[in-house]
Write a structure and sequence with these properties.
Number of helices: 18
Shape: elongated
Radius of gyration: 33 Å
Strand order of the largest sheet: 1-2
Structural class: mainly alpha
Number of strands: 2
Oligomer: single chain
Length: 376
Amino acid sequence: MKRLMSAALWLAFVSAPGWGQIRNITINTSSEPGKLLQQAADEKDSNKKIALYEEFLSKFPSDEAEAYVHFQLQNEYLKVNNFDKSLEHGQAAQAKAPEDLEVAHFLVKAAEGKGDAQALVAAVEKAHALAQKVSATPKPSQENEVEAWKRNTDFAGQVDQYNEYALYESSQKQTSAQAKIVLFDALRKYFPNGQFSKSLDAQYVVAYQKLGDNQKMLQAMEAALATDPTNEGYLYLIAENNMDPAKGKLGVAQANAEKILQTLPGKPKPAAMSEEEWTKYKENYLGRAHFVLGRIFAEQNKFGPAQKELLAAASALKGNNDVLGGVYYFLGLSSAKLNRQAEAVNYLTQSSKIPGPYQAYAADTLKKIRAALAGR
């Protein structure tokens, strides 16, 4: 008769349900199952060890050592990067020992290696809960139990650090925006104040943008401003989204536009940009900020201030027809309200020639102004 134990953490979690079934078994080395187990335990090469343990499961599927073998195979398959098989045997081991933290940890590593976001979140959920439970175990009063308790709690802390790391690193490797979001959500849920929390909002923005979910993208931008309050891209898009007076958020849009104008001119040039690129970048966002303010003042019937902002926008956005159509349209409207009809005709004519959402409005308004001028 001979007793076999798992080499790793054999002192840990001795009270966990199923511990003995997967870690500490007594076998009869004179029996056929015992001989095969002993041969597998003595083998140093992982692939040969795997073959022996798989042979054992094939020949003796109902043996009392079955759970122990699944645990060994979970670990050995992980060593050779066969993550599907490691998951398969790890789940079988976990079914027998659901409170075993090392089994849960190996499942996290296998799911991480496979790159399966859903499987990783499920594995982390279990490993995190077990790690938290072990970490919360009170220090024993018996001195001879303190060393094992410390080992257990230290390991639990390391497991949870790895859980956080695995979620984040896997999120960076995913090509699917939806998979990234699944992993970001898990990080937020289990590690709300973790080491990666400050970078998540900006990454949510990109992921939701790829998915075309405008509402959630904007929500992520608003959250991201807490750590990046002068990000002109976020400020502008949030302002643009709040331009409809019916939303009652013109004040938010105005404040965001003003912040761009206050902070962007003084920002240093990024190392990755040339001077020319940086100048164009700044002109684009400064022009857009002036456009937002011009539209807001026009909505408030402040046509003098509106025209001042819109003229600044037109100067900064030369050649940028994506925005100039709207700039010229509102310049035409404000000029008409200020009884500068010749200017209104000029700006509306320019707007009517630029394809985009304002082209038809500009043409229609231009027609009405010309008709009114002709009827004088």
